[in-house]
Design a protein that fits this description.
Distance between the termini: 37 Å
Number of strands: 16
Order of helices and strands: HHEEEHEHHEEEEEHEEEHEEHEHEH
Structural class: alpha/beta
Strand order of the largest sheet: 1-2-4-3-5-16-6-15
Shape: elongated
Length: 384
């Protein structure tokens, strides 16, 4: 690899190499090593490794003091078997880059090269290669890491590729960009009995049915309204496959979505109370826990204006979305702590959907992502 600005072919090669060797959340050791090996050719002023387990932070400093801007991408892949047969297909059974994090890393590496070649006149640009986005734990792990506490950016940015949108289109939205998502596990304990004498036991089945019905009544699928709430049953288990035994325990899991963090807190309390109340009515012990929590990405208007200007200067088509995306993205934790924004990068109208086994990140949009990020960094670090 040459020590000048990398050609787009170099970034494509890196992307395909990352695609071939995917790693699931929290296990991204080799992925981080590949990123570090690329960065050796475009060394930052400061490099921090092992952030939030496997994360990497590269810092490029200007000659003078000024604003600090952070750009973030994700290291992890998904536990999905790839169905593509191309040469760079995943070499790991049951794991593949089906969200395009391989492409997001290539974009941030392209930005690293630009910053190495042309240091900011003033200010600081921080690149964060974050672990474990897919299970919602990575952002929190980064924030809990003392290595990260010294980093105090003025603005934070991230992008996500968007299949179904025209290639190179920049998708922006003020306020909520992606929804708050949380998952609840409800465990109910009663008492097993002989299936011929069910009255001698306490069976959780009717309680689970009542919880499903009550949660269903809470759903409000119109995202244009303030009380948007999507609840999806994910998994349930009642008793055992022993036909002489009436079930004495069960559990049910749901994912819950809201378009604001404040509204999500209210929904969480209401659902917990409903589950406990129904359990009590059926004389069951009830335990609830939340898992894989994603804060809503609440975009700052000034940050969105930087994105719009970068798209405009580079001649990219801009699309202002009216409603938030209903998927979760743990970058929401960053936009809770600092002014910032996430934006979408069109991946092509006919590109397979995210998390589909035949999805592959389109290399044509790597340069687009680099150009937008780079222009945002210049606007912020050059501001006086």
């Amino acid at each position: 690899m040459e020590n000048s600005n990398p050609s787009i072919e170099t970034l494509v090669r890196l992307r395909k190499e990352l695609h071939k060797h995917p790693e699931v959340s929290g296990k991204e050791k080799q992925t981080a090593k590949r990123v570090l090996s690329f960065l050796e050719n475009y060394p930052p002023d400061e490099l921090i490794t092992g952030v939030g387990t496997t994360g990497v932070v590269a810092i490029y400093k200007g000659k003078k003091n000024g604003k600090t801007v952070l750009f973030r991408c994700e290291l992890d892949a998904l536990p999905i078997e790839e169905t593509n047969r191309f040469e760079h297909r995943s070499l790991i059974d049951g794991v593949s880059h089906k969200c395009g994090h391989d492409g997001h890393m290539a974009i941030l590496c392209g930005l690293a090269a630009k910053l190495h070649q042309n240091k900011p006149d003033s200010g600081t640009v921080i690149l964060l290669f974050q672990p474990a986005e897919e299970d919602g734990s990575g952002a929190q792990k980064v924030f809990s890491d003392t290595k990260f506490t010294l980093i105090q950016p003025d603005y934070v940015f991230a992008l996500h590729n968007l299949p179904g949108f025209p290639m190179h289109q920049i998708v922006v939205k003020n306020e909520t960009f992606t929804c708050a998502v949380n998952s609840i596990i409800i465990k109910l304990k009663g008492k097993t009995a002989h299936a011929g004498e069910p009255e001698r036991g306490i069976n959780p089945t009717l309680a689970i049915a009542a919880i499903i019905n009550q949660f269903n009544a809470t759903i409000q699928t119109d995202i244009t309204k303030e009380n948007y709430c999507q609840i999806t049953p994910i998994y349930t288990k009642i008793g055992k496959k022993a036909y002489g035994v009436a079930a004495g325990a069960g559990e049910i899991h749901f994912t819950v979505r809201s378009d604001s963090n404040l509204q999500m807190r209210k929904i969480e309390i209401a659902l917990e109370n409903a589950a406990r109340s129904i359990a009590k009515e059926y004389q069951l012990k009830c335990k609830t826990q939340w898992t894989q929590s994603f804060q809503a990405n609440e975009n700052d208007k000034t940050a969105v204006a930087f994105i719009k200007k970068a798209a405009e200067i580079n001649g990219f088509e801009l699309f202002e979305k009216e409603k938030p995306f209903t998927w979760g993205e743990d970058f929401g934790l960053f936009t809770q702590h600092y002014p910032g924004a996430m934006f979408g990068l069109g991946a092509g109208v006919n590109t397979a959907a995210l998390h589909n086994p035949d999805y592959d990140f389109p290399d044509e949009i790597i340069a687009t992502g680099v150009a937008v990020f780079h222009h945002i960094s210049k606007q912020i670090t050059n501001a006086h």
